[in-house]
Structures are given as structure tokens and as C-alpha cells.
Amino acid sequence: MKRKLIIHVGMGKTGSSSIQHTLRASGPLLQARGVKYLGLMLERQSLEKSPVWHKSDGWTQFTSLPEPQATAQLVAALQEIDQALPDSVHTLIWSNEALFNEVEQVAAAIEQLNLLFDITVVGYIRSPDSWIHSAYLQWGIKHKSYKGSLKSFPEWVKNKKFVVTPFINRWKQLVESVVFFNFEPIKDVCEHFITEYLPAIASDVKVVVSNETPSSAAIALFAYYNSLFEEEVLPNRLMPLLSESGVAKSRQVMPEFNGLLPGKEDISHFIADNRPEIDQINHFFEMEKQPPFDMNQLKFKDNNVSQQDINRALLQLVVHLSDEVERLKQVIKSQ
After folding, report:
1. How would you class 61 by CB atoms within 10 Å of its CB: exposed for 0-12, middle for 13-18, buried for 19 or more?
2. Residue that is last in its domain, among 212, 238, 269
3. What stretch of H or E contains 123?
4. How many Cβ atoms are within 10 Å of 174's Cβ, its own excluded?
5. Which residues lie across from 64 on neighbouring strands?
6. Strands (DSSP E) along the chain, which ranges?
7. Strand 91-95 to strand 177-182: parallel, antiparallel, or no bridges (unpaired)?
8. In what order do the strands lie in the sheet with 3-8?
9. What single-letter DSSP state applies at residue 234?
10. Are residues 174 and 274 in the same domain?
11. Residue 109 is assigned to a structural domain of this protein
């Protein structure tokens, strides 16, 4: 009897990382229940002779091989996995979002693997408005995936098209069982995937949220940082600092600072609303032969701040911290 092979193909920006992290974290539980998660490039199952691409980030190396060689290696790897695993493992899962729109890279292999496995292809389709916005934040700003100056959205989006149906149709040509879900109404795509395809153990699998969109402030900091470089810049240059400091986390939206502060008119309204109490206090002062509150001259402190003031303060902090680091370096050096 054929094993089931579930191939999760993305598309990109539809929560694939969370699905992958959840399956990886639940590896022992899955295998105990007859399910083997193979990873992005089958790297979670050892092979006798591992191809150069047999690692989580091996997709580029896979696609750089001549097509017949890549096909032969992929088919051989899955045949070896099928033979090596015990009969108790009834389902294999392969998840890689690059597969969605690079289906031709594996098409010949899939045609052969249909004879070996009962294959189901699963994907999620995001609406073009939210997809292109998220894609720009990811590959236009957070991961500067091009050379030259940082591009605005209108510059970055030139010649980019929302292309989905040709890839869906191609997958349907290759595999009999193909399902692509509308991503938009799904509250949690990872939970949805587990419930749909692993219902018997869904209640035992702990969902791991991964690769959440950073806060708007963090995205702005990515833009500032990446604009310093002409070359491509990977997110991992800055992301650890933003994560450890908490800047990357979502937070409440803060109104413009100066708009939070009271103006003279606001203070005047407060005085008017509390006039009866003020009059009583002033009467008390008069009885005690003390000067009353003078409400004709409002005491008002202007706490408004300019961006220049903020920049100067931040620079002062940076210089102070730099001096502290230098001082600690000298202490360490002297020991």
C-alpha cells in the first residue's frame, strides 16, 4: 500500500514558516502517530549519500543542478526514505513555499513519484492587496533583496504581477489531489493545516507562531539600516537586536507626542469646569488672609518637542553608551 505524501507548497507570505516550525517542534509526537515531517528539503530524514541540496536552505543548490540530475536525486532520495521508514509511518509531509511558483523544478520528479506515493498537494492563496503589501515589507524593506538604493513601493512594484492560476493549474496537471485554500478567512493557517490533514492528533499539536510581521517601528528601523548599504541585506543583520530589545513585537499605536499634551485652551476648559471649587478655595484663602489663586494668568508649561530635539537626545544616549563600552574595553584590556 502506498504511503501518503502531503506536499505543502505555500504560496509565499501565507504562514508557511509557522507550519514548518510547528511540524518540526512536534516531530517526535508526529512520528509516534505515524507521521514523518521531512522538512524543507527532506533534511529531517538521513540519507545514505546526501545530495548537496539535502539541507534546510538547499533549494538554490537544487535548482542550480541540471534538471535530469536534480530529478534523479529527488526521486532517489524519496525512494530511499520510503524504504527506510517502518511500516508504522503512513504519512510523509514535505513543506517548502518555494515549490508553489517553481513547480517546473520538480515536475518531472513528481510525475515519477506519483507511482510510489499517494500524493496530496496543499497550498494557500492570499488576496493580492494584502499579499503585495506584505511582500514589499518582506523583500523590499526587511530583506533588501536588490542592489542600489532603498526602493519605495511604487519603484519596487514595477513589473511585478500577481500570478497564481498558472501554478495552480500546473500542480493540478501533475497530481490528482490538489487543494488550494483561500487564506483570507482562515484565522490561523497552521491550526487549519493541522486540523485538515492531521485531525487525529490536532488537539495534541502545539502551534508555534513564527516569522510574525515586525512592528511598524521595527520595519522603519529596517529601512533606515538597509538604506546604508548598496548591496543586498539579509534581515538577520538587524533582527536579533530588534527581537532581543522587544522592538520587533507588536505594540499599541502611539499618537503623535505633541498631540498628547495639553494646550492653553485645554487648561482653560479645565479651569472653567472646576470654577466653583476654585472659588471656594479662594474664599478660604481670603478668610486666612492669604493671596488667592490668580486664574487670570494661567500657568502653562510648553512641553512640545521637535524631531530635532529627539534626535539630539538619542545621539547623547548613543555617545554615553559608546563611552561606557570604551571604558569597559579598557577595564577588560587591563586585566
Report:
1. middle
2. 212
3. strand 117-125
4. 20
5. none
6. 3-8, 35-39, 91-95, 117-125, 177-182
7. unpaired
8. 35-39, 91-95, 3-8, 117-125, 177-182
9. -
10. no
11. yes
C-alpha cell at 92: 510523509
- 281 and 193 in a single domain? The answer is no
Residue 29, C-alpha cell as written in the block: 509526537
Output the tens digit of pLDDT for each of the chain's 335 residues. Answer: 899 999 999 999 999 999 999 999 999 999 999 999 999 999 999 999 999 999 999 999 999 999 999 999 999 999 999 999 999 999 999 999 999 999 999 999 999 999 999 999 999 999 999 999 999 999 999 999 999 999 999 999 998 899 999 999 999 999 999 999 999 999 999 999 999 999 999 999 999 877 677 888 889 999 999 999 999 999 998 999 888 888 888 777 778 888 888 888 888 898 899 999 999 999 989 999 998 988 888 887 888 899 999 899 999 999 999 999 999 999 999 98
Residue 223 CB contacts under 8 Å (≥ 6 apart), including other chains: 141, 150
Please give the DSSP secondary-structure letter assigned to residue 105.
Answer: G
DSSP 249-279: S--PPPPPHHHHS--HHHHHHHHHHTHHHHH
- Among residues 281, 278, 257, the alpha carbon closest in space to that of 267 is found at 278
Cell numbers given for 246: 522587544
Residue 65 belongs to some domain of the structure: yes
What is the model's pTM? 0.80
Lookup: cell for 260 = 498628547
Whole-angstrom Cα distance, residue 268 to residue 262?
10
**Dist CA 268 CA 273 (whole Å):** 9
